[in-house]
Amino acid sequence: MDIIFIEEKINEIFKELEKEVMEVLSDVSLDKKNTNLKMKPLTSAKQILSNAIDSIKMVDRLSREEE
Q1: C-alpha distances in angstroms, 14 versus 42, 44, 67?
Q2: Rounded CA separation 5/1 (Å)
Q3: Each residue's pLDDT tens digit, 2-11
Q4: Are residues 51 and 4 in contact, defined by beta-carbon separation less than 8 angstroms?
Q5: Residue 40: CA count within 13 A, CB half-sphere
Q6: How many DSSP H helices and E strands does the chain contain?
Q7: C-beta pairs of 22-30 under 8 Å, 24+ apart in sequence
Q8: Which residues have C-beta within 8 Å of that of residue 10, sequence separation ≥ 6?
Q9: d(C-alpha 9, C-alpha 54), whole Å
């Protein structure tokens, strides 16, 4: 498994999520409630991806230890 490649791709997704976050935060037409509603899925996606890469690294480490 190419962990470095996977990390690079997830980091690219993180950068895109950050762009979306900045767009939401800079949208002055949104009130606090709507800003929070738009931020929640972005925050969740980032957390899910972060957990996924941590899990992938752990599985990779464990498989290398078993070898």
Answers
A1: 10, 12, 32
A2: 9
A3: 889 999 999 9
A4: no
A5: 5
A6: 2, 0
A7: none
A8: 49, 52, 53
A9: 14
Does the pTM surpass 0.90? The reply is no
Which tokens hold the place of 9?
């791709």
60: its two tokens? 């990779």
Residues 19, 42: Cα–Cα separation, whole Å = 10
Buried-exposed string 20-42: b where 16+ CB fall within 10 A, e elsewhere: eeeebeeeeeeeeeeeeebeeeb
Say if residues 21 and 42 touch (Cβ distance below 8 Å). Answer: yes
